[in-house]
């Protein structure tokens, strides 16, 4: 599975996926519901206080996890990968390979957007992990996020800030160059 997506994902996303794949090996699971829709309780190897529930629709090969990593980052979590391993799925289903994270997103604009998204995604994952460590941290993280999101939406309404300046365009081109050769 790792070798297969290495040729598909961008470098950054592949690194994130590979880390999840490696960490899936240290997860442990229990089947808690059987049938067409089965449920698994999955525990991170290094921290068994965090319990996640993975729901797997066998006929449609659809899957979801209570950690919601795929929903916010577009990359499957270690818990789902553990369940895939358990049920014998060795090829990543196409619907879980988002086009925006693939190298076939060809235009410069798409690459620039993917680059920014990759970078933000890394931050989001770290942010979510820190913010989910306790109820207090969650409250602080949630409020800070809402404030930041409001700032981004406000900035988006200001046309001057979203029009690409020459400086930004050059910066993006340099980043794309780095992205393509790395
Ligand atoms: Zn998960």
The largest beta-sheet arranges its strands as 1-2-3-4
* Shape descriptor: globular
Average pLDDT: 83
- State the helix count: 8
Gyration radius from CA atoms, angstroms: 19 Å
Number of strands: 4
In percent terms, what proportion of residues is strand? 5-15%
Biggest β-sheet strands, sense, barrel: 4 strands, antiparallel
Global structural class = alpha+beta
Task: State the helicity in percent bands.
Answer: 55-70%
Question: What ligands can be seen in this structure?
Answer: zinc ion
- Poorly predicted tracts of residues: 163-171, 173-182
Tell me the series of helices and strands, N- to C-terminal.
Answer: HHEEEEHHHHHH
Estimate nothing, just give the exact number of structural domains. 2
What's a concise summary of this model?
The chain has 182 residues and is α+β, with helices and mostly antiparallel strands.
Keywords:
182 residues, alpha+beta, 2 domains, 4-stranded antiparallel β-sheet, 8 helices, binds zinc ion
Secondary structure: elements and pairs:
Blueprint: H1 2-6, H2 11-24, E1 28-33, E2 37-43, E3 51-57, E4 62-65, H3 69-73, H4 78-87, H5 108-131, H6 135-157, H7 159-162, H8 166-181
Antiparallel strand pairs: 1-2, 2-3, 3-4
Helix pairs in contact: 2-4, 5-6, 5-8
Bound molecules: zinc ion.
Function: Putative transcription activator involved in regulating light control of development.
Domain SWIM-type: 52-88
Family: Belongs to the FHY3/FAR1 family.
């Amino acid at each position: 599975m790792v070798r297969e997506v290495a040729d598909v994902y961008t470098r950054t996303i592949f690194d994130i996926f590979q880390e999840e794949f490696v960490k899936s090996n240290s997860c442990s699971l229990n089947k808690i519901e059987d049938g067409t829709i089965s449920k698994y309780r999955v525990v991170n190897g290094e921290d068994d206080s965090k319990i996640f529930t993975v729901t797997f629709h066998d006929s449609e090969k659809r899957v979801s996890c209570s950690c919601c990593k795929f929903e916010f980052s577009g990359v499957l979590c270690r818990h789902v990968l553990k369940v895939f391993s358990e049920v014998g799925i060795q090829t990543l289903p196409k619907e879980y390979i988002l086009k925006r994270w693939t190298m076939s997103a060809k235009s410069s604009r798409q690459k620039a957007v993917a680059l920014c998204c990759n970078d933000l995604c890394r931050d989001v994952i770290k942010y979510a992990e820190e913010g989910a460590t306790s109820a207090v941290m969650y409250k602080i993280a949630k409020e800070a996020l809402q404030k930041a999101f409001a700032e981004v939406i406000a900035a988006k309404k200001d046309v001057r800030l979203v029009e690409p300046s020459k400086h930004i365009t050059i910066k993006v081109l340099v980043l794309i160059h780095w992205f393509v050769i790395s």
